[in-house]
Amino acid sequence: MNSSILYTLQLNVVFLLMISFLITRLPVVQKILTGKKESLWDRAALILLFSGISICSTYIGINVDGMIVNTRVIGVLAAGLFGGPAAGIGAGAFATLHRVFYDPDGFSTMACALSTLIAGFLGAFLHDMYTRTGYRNLFVILIAAGAETLHMLLILLLSPPFELARSVVSRTALPMICLNSFGLMIFMFVFNQVCVQRDRDSAVRVCEALKIADSALPFMRQGLARGESLDKVVEIILRSGICDGVLFTDRQAVLACGSTEGSFSIAAGDALPQFAERLMRRGGFDTDVIVEESERAAYQFSRQQQIIAASLMVRKKTMGCMILIVKKKLFSPEFDAHFAEGLSNLFSTQLELAEMDELKRQYRAAELKALRSQINPHFLYNALNTISCVCREQPERARQLLLTLATYYRHTLSNARAYMTLREEIECIGNYLVLEKARFEEKLIVEYCLECSMDQLIPAFILQPIVENAVKYGADTQGVRHVSLRAADDGDYLVVTISDRGQGFPQHILDGFAGAPYPQQHFGLLNVDRRLKNIYGPACGLKLHSSPQGACVEVRCAKAQNREFIEENMSCA
Questions:
Q1: Can you tell me the distance from the alpha carbon of 488 to that of 476, in angstroms, rounded to the nearest whole number?
Q2: 50, 171, 295, 449: which is deepest, by most CB within 10 A?
Q3: Burial environment of residue 300 by CB neighbours within 10 A (0 to 12, 13 to 18, 19 or more)
Q4: Whole-structure pTM over 0.90, yes or no?
Q5: Helix-strand-coil percent breakdown of the chain, rounded to 5?
C-alpha cells in the first residue's frame, strides 16, 4: 500500500471531519436536524454545500497514474443519506460534471464520473432506509464500501488499457474502500451526535420547564391579580439559572419582576414597557425583542441581554406577558425560545383555570343566593297573618313571634357564608318551625334526635328546603303534620334524616332522581342533591324513601372533607 495514497486519504478524511463540524452550525443544516420542513432554497443550499465538499475532495486528492485518489464519494453519499433524494442527486450531478471538466483527458475520468453519479443516486435511494435503521454505522460502512467497490469495477471495465487499470485498482482499491467507508461513518456520526446532543439539550430544557411548572403553577393558579404569588413565580424561575431576569405584566403595568444581578431598573408597579405593549398588541411570541433607544429603562440592559417575550393568553385573549432576560452570549435561539414558549403556554393554561375557579366561586355564590331567594313568599304572608291574629288576644306571644320572624330572615337573607355548623342550621330551622307551629298549632308535631357533633360544618341551607317540603306536603289523613329530624354519625359521614307521615313522594319525583326528566316546579330537591355531589363527590347527596306511610329524605355529607376547600368558600358571597 503506497504511503502517499494513505496519507492523502487520511488528509481528506480529516478535512471532511472539520467540514462536518462546521456545517452542522449552518441554519439550513440545523433546520434538517430539528426535523423542520426545508424550502426550495434550503434544498438548493444543501446541493451546493455537499457539491462543494465533493469538489474540494477532488482538489485535495492525489493523482495515481491518471486516477485521482480522493474521498469525493463521502460528500455525494452524505448528501443523499442526510439531505434526501434532491440533495443526493443534485450533489452527485454537480460533482460528476466537475470531475469530467477537471481532468477530461484522464484515463479513469469516465469511470470516476459515472461512479460519482451512481453514488448520488444510491444515497438518494437509501435515504429513507437510513433514517429508519437502528444500525446506522454498519449501514453507512456497507454503503460506502459498496460504492467504492463499484467505482473500482467501473475503472476496470471503462478505463483502458486494462493492465494500467488493474495496476491502479490493485494499489488504490483497499485504502479507498477502507478509508472512504470509515470516513463516511465518522462524517455521518458527527451529524447524528449533533442530533443526540440537541435532543439532550431539549430534554434538559423540558425538565427545567416541568420543574418550574411543578413549583410555580399553584401560584399562577391564583391569577395575575395576586402580586405576592407572582413574586414567588419570579423567584422560582430565577432559581433555575436559565435566565437572569423575569417580568410579569398585565395589560397596564408591571406586576412582578426580579433579576439575579439587578441588571435592569424596572420595578413592580411601573407602567407597561413599550416593547411589552407592542407584543401584546400583536400577541404571540418573540425571541428577539427590539428595544428602542427612547425606552431608557430597558434599552441599557437590552444591549447585552437577550429579551424573550411571550403573551399570556386566556381564552385567546392576551391578558399580559412573561418576559425573560438572558445573556446574549449564553442565549440559544432554539432551546431558550422553546423553554419560554412552553412555560408561557403552561402559565396561560393555569390562568384559564384560575378564571374557571373564579367562575365556579361566583356560580356557588349565585347558587347560594338562589337558595335564599327560594324562601316561599307565602310563608311570609302566612306568618304575618298568623301574627296579626295573635296580636289581639296574645300580644306578648305576637311580640315573640315577630322577633322570631326577624331572627329567621336576618339569618337567611344576610348570612353570606357558604358553610355553617349543624347547630346554626338547626337553629334556623327551629325558628322556621316556631312560626309554622304558631300557624298550625297542635297539627304540627316536630321531633328532634341529634346524636352527633353539632359543630360539624355543612353547606348552608341544605336542610331548610327539605324541612319546608315536609311541612308543606307531609300532612297525614287527619291533617296532622309529623316532622322528624334526626342526625347521626355514620363513620366518615354525617347523615341527617328528615321524615314525615304524609302520602309519600309522587312517582315523577322519584323518577326524576332516577334520571328521568324532572318537573320544573320540583327542582329544589334535585338542586340540593347536585350541590352535595359537587362538593363531596358521588358518595354523598340525597336518598329518597317513599311509602304510603310517609316520605323520608336522607342527607349524607362527608365529615373528612377538604378543610382548605371549605375555608376557601366560608366567605363566599
A1: 26
A2: 50
A3: middle
A4: no
A5: 60, 15, 20
Residues paired with residue 323 on neighbouring β-strands, in sequence order = 247, 309
**DSSP-assigned states of every residue in 115-147:** HHHHHHHHHHHTHHHHHH-S-HHHHHHHHHHHH
Report how far Cα 509 is from the mean position of its chain's Cα atoms: 43
Longest dimension (CA), the chain: 142
Q: Is-contact 553 498, C-beta < 8 A?
A: yes
The position carrying cell 324513601 is: 545
Closest CA to 72 of 188, 175, 176, 166: 176
- Among left, alpha and beta (phi > 0; psi -120 to 50; other), residue 20 is alpha
**Kind plus residue range of the DSSP H or E element containing 27:** helix 27-33
**For the segment 112-130, what is each residue's pLDDT rounded down to a tens digit?**
999 999 999 999 999 888 8
pLDDT in tens, 270-316: 777 776 777 777 666 665 555 555 555 554 555 567 777 777 877 77
**Residue entry with cell 401584546:** 280
- DSSP tag of 271: B
Query: Which class for 1: exposed (0-12), middle (13-18), buried (19 or more C-beta within 10 A)?
Result: exposed
Q: Which residues of the chain have pLDDT under 50?
A: 1, 299, 562-565, 567-573
Rounded to whole angstroms, what are the CA distances from 507 to 102, 504, 516, 541, 551?
A: 100, 9, 11, 20, 12
